Amino acid sequence: MSLRTIAATVTGCLALAVAATAQQAGDAAPTKIAFVDVKRALVSIEEGKAKRKELQDWARPKEEELQRLGKEIVELQTELNAKRSAANEDALAELNRRLVAKQREAEDKQRVAQRDLEERQATILRGVGEKLQAVITQYSDANRFTAVFILEPDNVAYLAASADITDQVVKLYNEKYPLQAKPAAPPAK
User: Fold this and answer.
1) Angle in degrees, CA 87, 88, 94, rounded to 5
2) What distance in Å separates the CA atoms of residue 139 and residue 170, rounded to the nearest whole number?
3) Residue 73's closest CA among 123, 36, 110, 120?
4) Considering the entire predicted model, what is its pTM?
5) Which of 31, 32, 37, 39 could form an S-S bond across to 151 if both were Cys, CB 3.0 to 4.6 Å?
């Protein structure tokens, strides 16, 4: 097959494709595409802000406990280094045993705290995420979007502001799922 025959075949195929697309475009509604920055939405919706604060309040005592254990480890290391040249081997072995035990305790508590934090985050994201998906679907259907994509701002060279529906979705979410005020604590006696 000659180069001229291949070029003619490719040109013919392209012409047929363009003609078919033009005919379909006349019959179909225009394609509407939008993007939602889910990360920004999650930190912007009122429920997301409240859940994040609850998570931080839950994690604070665990962080403080890990900091306390860290200080105890440093104190034991300092004591061990100070007594290394003067103390007998039994005393050094006992200090080293206490240091290793404290390090293991800190590592265990760190692992448990990290696991618990990840489980809580996943539960929160699942609950809020399902509601967010419902709002995105409702908004997209009402506005006849063909497709709505998750926006990764670092991976976009250009995006028209009108294609980013994050703010509208956040507004609708806050309207549909208003943050319930917690009942006031009973007065202390």
Assistant:
1) 90
2) 11
3) 110
4) 0.67
5) 37
pLDDT digits 0-9 by tens, 135-186: 999 999 999 999 999 988 888 888 888 899 999 999 999 999 998 766 555 5
Residue 93 domain-assigned?
yes
In terms of residue numbers, what domain contains 67? Answer: 29-176
**Residue 36 phi, psi dihedral angles, 5° rounding:** -125, 125
- The span from the CA of 80 to the CA of 87, in Å, is 9
Amino acid at 10: V
Is residue 47 domain-resident?
yes
| Residues 41-58: tens digit of each pLDDT | 999 999 999 999 999 999
Do residues 146 and 32 touch, judged by C-beta distance below 8 A? yes
